[in-house]
Amino acid sequence: MIVAEKKPVEEIIDYVKDFKKLLIAGCNECVTVCEAGGKKEVGILASALRMYFLNEGKKVEIDEVTLERQCDHEYLEEIRDRIDKYDAVLSLACGVGVQFMAEKYFSTPVFPGVNTCFLGAAEERGVWSERCQACGQCILGETAGICPISRCAKRLLNGPCGGSTKGKCEINKDLDCAWQLIIDRLKELNRLDDYEKIMPIKDWSTERAGGPRKVVREDVRL
Amino acid sequence: MRINYPGTIRIIRLPCTGKVDVIHILRAFEKGADGVYVVGCLEGECRFSNGNLRAKKRIEQAQQILDAIGIGGERAQMYNLSSADGPRFAEYAVEMTEKIKKLGPNPLKKAKEKMAA
Amino acid sequence: MESIEGEPGDFKVTLTSYPRYIDPIKCTGCGECAKRCPVTAINMYNLGLDDRKATYIEYPQAVPLAFAIDIDTCIGCGLCEMMCLAKAINYEDNEKKSTICVGAVILSPGSEGFDPSGMDVLGYGKFANVVTSEEFERILSASGPYRGHLMRTLDREAPKKIAWIQCVGSRDVNLCGNGYCSSVCCMYAVKEAMIAKEHSHDDLDCAIFNMDIRSFGKDYEKYYNRAKDEHGVRFIKSRVHTINEDSTTGDLVIRYTDESGQTNEETFSMVVLSVGLQIPESVTALARRLDIELNNYNFAVTDPFAPVNSSRPGIFVSGVFQGPKDIPGSVTEASAAACAAGTKLAEARGTDTKTIEIPAEIDVLETETRIGVFVCNCGINIAGVVDVPAVADYAATLPYVVFVDQNLFTCSQDTQDKMKEVIKENNLNRVVVASCTPRTHEPLFQETLQACGLNKYLFEMANIRDQDSWVHANDPEAATEKAKDLVRMAVARAGLLKPLKEKKISINRRALVIGGGVAGMNAALGLADQGFDVVIVEKEAQLGGLSRDLTVTIEGADIQRYLLELVDRVTGHEKIQVLTESLIVGFSGFKGNFTTEIMVGPGMYERKIDHGVVILATGANEYKPEEYLYGQDYRVVTQIELGKRLEVKGADDISKVVMIQCVGSRNEKNQNCSRVCCQSAVKNALHIKEFNPDAEIYILYRDMRMYGLLEDYYTEARQQGIIFSRFSQDNPPNVEATDEGIAVTFKDHILQRDISITADLLALSAGMVAEDTEELASILKLPRNEEGYFIEAHVKLRPVDLANEGVFLCGTAHSPKLISEAISQALAAASRATIFLSQSEITLSAVTARVDPDLCAACLVCVRACPYEVPRINEEGVSEIDVALCHGCGICAAECPAKAIELDWYEDDQVMSKVEALLEGVL
Lengths: 222, 117, 923
Fold this sequence. Notes:
The complex is a heterotrimer. Chain A is of the alpha/beta class. Chain A has helices at 9-16, 30-33, 39-55, 73-77, 80-83, 95-104, 148-151, 178-188, 192-196, and strands spanning 2-6, 21-27, 61-67, 88-91, 110-112, 114-124, 127-132, 168-169, 172-176. In chain A, strand 4, helix 6 and strand 5 form a beta-alpha-beta unit. The model of chain A has no long low-confidence stretch (mean pLDDT 95). By secondary structure, chain B is mainly alpha-helical. The model of chain B has no long low-confidence stretch (mean pLDDT 94). In chain B, helix 2 (51-68) links the parallel strand 1 (36-40) and strand 2. Chain B starts with 21 loop residues before the first helix and ends with a helix. Chain B has four helices and two strands. In chain B, strands 1-2 form a two-stranded parallel sheet. Chain B has one domain. In chain B, helix 1 packs across helix 2. Chain C has six domains: 19-94, Alpha-Beta Plaits (2-Layer Sandwich), CATH 3.30.70; 112-278, FAD/NAD(P)-binding domain (3-Layer(bba) Sandwich), CATH 3.50.50.60; 371-496, Rossmann fold (3-Layer(aba) Sandwich); 510-619 and 771-842, FAD/NAD(P)-binding domain (3-Layer(bba) Sandwich), CATH 3.50.50; 623-768, FAD/NAD(P)-binding domain (3-Layer(bba) Sandwich), CATH 3.50.50; 849-903, Alpha-Beta Plaits (2-Layer Sandwich). Chain C has 22 helices and 47 strands. The longest helix of chain C is centred in the middle third of the chain and has 21 residues, at 476-496. Chain C is globular and about 100 Å long. At the B-C interface, helix 1, helix 2, helix 3 and helix 4 of B face helix 12, helix 21 and helix 22 of C.
């Protein structure tokens, strides 16, 4: 899932302080699940902004909507008939949703209400951690299901480095050394031989190095 | 026990403070309340296990937002007491009233008047 | 109670009701009488620390909530009679005799705190700042004489140092003859010290002078450790010698001798005497009248295997009258007594029940909203402050209000009858009563609605008495305004209320008991004797559990014989089915309707059992020591092994025995006290002495926890020359195996030097460890504590219930305990289970959470936030909340990030309508 964090109210205010009619748009997918931009947060932010503007002596109208997903045209279409009513949209979706909204409604300013952080998992309620960097060339099959690209600070393919101490990474003692985890799990799986194999230099062209990426699936295209 | 306390408060009944959400508190201020406080069971004594601890976190969240928008987080508070703690209920009512009196009315009232004028 | 005549099942009980001079049925609890009463009397509820009126109620939570006249102080002025609009005062009231017919009687007359006035050396009654623990309890209470402010009695100054003196009136044969331990004083002293520290504005110094700290209850040791290690409460091992007052300051000087024998003096600002529990004279007199046998300390005599049966058949006992105990123990025993009585009354169950006819409900959703508002004067309780006519007039102006009335007492029977007519005449479909508190009166008014064919959830109350007239009596104008606000808020919410359906679920009247030890078998019999079917699942091939390894109780009762009889009764009972060598592999359902899958041995075929309740009795085992050469030297044994050996071989061949306490208990790995090991050691030591009076026995202990009546055995052991020596946790005894025997070296704190004993036998008082229930707990989704014991719903109030409804707990699966305690708890669990099993269906509250599947994002927030693990993501991929399991707290509704959950009757717009109505027009 995409993990996002709420932006500070102050920052949001700075974006929208000069508009008169605002739409706050939540998204009922990842940002709802990570409790940053669902219907509940839309309500809280709308109430906070209404009070802010009133306190500043400004007359600002604020509407609320939460779309099923902001990364699909069809759902974004749901607000087409009223989008022109607004001077700006504050989207609580992830970076994808904000951009898609901006692309779709070209003449309406769109601002982000959350910081999109990473692709991660919920370790427990309120704790999310990164698991994937979407490099486009998955090597989890060679690394005991533990990703050194997202979880090793140096993205080493043949680790660990000399900074691994007692299973922890040198940049932060609370951070597990990904390679220690990999070795431990290979041992458990009786596949330590895999560790001996030298991994070839990674083809980074599928990652950001190749520029913005696109997936085209002819088999499912209409 | 009929202990006098200030006539400044109106009580809204909920099954558990765990039912209180940030938006309930914000909405009260949006409508013009000068202060909002939530009274729950003593910590560790929640009738529903941990509702009061959940409420505490939501009050903190509301306080942060109220601070950020210039209303003042101090206007929202959480108190804990047992159902046999009548005198303490009254004490908290006094404490909260004094706190709000010091802070003055909800700033939105003045803002609204100004806008009307 | 004057007398009980007749036989079990048919008792005639003669009662005397003393005059109250105020009719509790007519009294509304308004308190106007007490307000006007001109006479001041001493308030004994606060132990004489403050005053009350001659017309009074003991405390605000009293049941019934009705006043009475203290005729000894009343001057008969007639003011209260004049004031009482309910006409409840009756100066002519007199003593009345009545008889009732019952099948069984439960005696729970309780105890009183020991009166230390006679103990000169402690200075109670002589020095103002020496108080009893009961008085201190009132001082700390928010409803007490000082309103919860920590002050000493002499000068109302905040104390800086407080000392507690333990065992006042307990463990003391010399001064008061109470040789028993009161069982509760150690824990209440620690609690009082902790709360006093909380209440104090300075760094309060608390010291507890004690002989032993007896924190033997479940998780009590952890609390004691916290007090000691985190909150700095000092524990001083000493029996205090004398207390003297510094007459200039009122401070108290305590002279005491410490463990090394040195005499010290320390000054405190206040001293609390931890007084023990004692059976009052009135109770011993009652017992004599009823022909109930008492022991030498006036506690009721009971059998270790029938702990709630008094000496007279059909009469049961519970609470401190049975023996000193704390609240969880008393509550448990009360349920046990109810079960024991219930088994004798099973036939009569339900024969006196009357049912109320409720007319069919009127559909209100399609009709326009018509709200009726009833404003109550509550005599002059409300009307004396609030301008009730003005409030009523105001109510009439509110939206959807079509009818308004005001009543003298809305709750009176005639007003309720009138209300029914009015509701029907005016086609009201929502009702608001502006009166007192829903806490006491909501059910009454809801019944009235139901009688008119209205759903009971179409009702709302505005509390203009407790929250208004009572607390703003000095400002009638503001109170009237507040009343209007409260009515406006109530009307706003009433307009949004919807009828709710209370789900009825049928109950499968069969019980599943997990574990066939003493507790499980007693629980099964407790239910089967009341006519309910029971299935016992036991994983071993035989019933009996840990007790199969035990020989006798400390009282000398033969455990094996008892067990044999018990197994016979269980296996021969037509209502009980026993599955041995069986394992639980699956579990589903909710209260009243569970299904359990069981692999039944020895063939391991699968069986599915439908049942309405579960009783957990999975038990515990003796800890297998890793310490002190256990398992390495045959001369090192556990207490259970020693008990068996004594049974088989006697003790003629042993002349020197050392016992070490707290092996596997009260340490880092297992913080808790195992409760039973002190008495096991004393029991075995006394046995050895019986076989071989010349045997030398040393018991090395940290605190001897011979609570309750066990203390007598401790005294006897010392009298028989058994040597008790205390060691500290950081300096445990050293044990070495030699050819001559087991050499045990320990530090004697009186001699202040090491002593070495070479013993024939070293007995380790190994603690208890919970049976491994990890898998079972995960199948049944039940919470366990760190040590693997199941966690009850509430330590004091619901000691045998689990938070999961329909699941109950007993025996050592709850925490370590003695056989008699396990039996009590088993009966208690059966009694609690009976509440479910005795009815064919139960009605659930309609205040439950509901998910809107269209909005749900399946984020798992509700699943994780629910304290009862009720929500689950269903096959459609959305959250689903089973109303049969939901407790109605609303936590999920508040947390849901998609706002997909509403709590019925507290829907967001219903709650917010009150906020909006209150603040209407403010901005």
